[in-house]
Amino acid sequence: MGNAAGQAAQSASLEAQVASHFADSASLKQGAAKLLSAPIARAIGVMSASLRSGGKVLACGNGGSAADAQHFAAELVNRFERERPPLAGLALTTDASTLTSIANDYSYEQVFEKQLRALGRKGDVLLAISTSGNSASVVAAVRAAGELGVQVVALTGNGGGKLAVLLGAGDVHICVPHTRTMRIQEVHLLALHCLCDGIDTLLFGEKK
């Protein structure tokens, strides 16, 4: 009986912990909507203008942010929630040979920068994802974007870190007002879905 009671208490504690995560996430998203709706709308405009004129969106990030970059590129190239032509999205996180050769021959810090210099053109957009805003490889890519005339949409949290001070007047900063990585990433995913939905709306009209 003692063991069963202990297991029940542990289960109840875990359920409360899970419920707390849901509540914290929902609260952050509700609050962030007031702060992030305007910059997300601006980012939709920047990306849509680039895609409409033959440009592309190149996305980068590390770890979970790399997964977000790939997720976003897939939504552009394949589709989001409607049937429409493919859009030019490219994740700079997927080519193992390129990534490892740059990291091995030069430094990991340059893995996105060198790809951007090779593939990026004026009129393109760099989606730079870093929960802290301090990822050295993403910071290097943002610096290169400034030199190349590539606009930046920065998706950060925790005040924006080093990325915040690098952004130019034409760039867009979507900074989640939180310090905890998991919470920031949850809002990043929502922001990416908002970008996808908004791009489809601007380029192909309202859903029927």
Give your account of this protein's structure.
The protein is of the alpha/beta class. The chain has one domain: Rossmann fold (3-Layer(aba) Sandwich). Helix content is 60%, strand content 12%. The chain is built from seven helices and five strands, in the order H-E-H-E-H-H-E-H-E-H-E-H. It has a five-stranded parallel β-sheet, sandwiched between helices. The longest helix is centred in the N-terminal third of the chain and has 51 residues, at 2-52. It is globular and about 65 Å long. The relative contact order is 0.17. The model has no long low-confidence stretch (mean pLDDT 96).
Task: Write down the overall mean pLDDT.
Answer: 96
From the spread of the alpha carbons, the general shape counts as globular
What's the arrangement of strands in the largest beta sheet?
2-1-3-4-5
Overall structural domain count: 1
Helix content: 55-70%
Query: H/E element string?
Result: HEHEHHEHEHEH
Q: Can you count the helices?
A: 7
Number of DSSP strands?
A: 5
**Sheet with the most strands, sense and barrel status:** 5 strands, parallel
As residue ranges, the low-confidence spans are none
Which range does the strand content fall in? 5-15%
CATH superfamily: Glucose-6-phosphate isomerase like protein, domain 1
Oligomer status: single chain
Radius of gyration: 19 Å
Q: Architecture in CATH?
A: 3-Layer(aba) Sandwich
Write the CATH fold name.
Rossmann fold
Give the terminus-to-terminus CA distance: 59 Å
Structural class: alpha/beta
CATH class: Alpha Beta
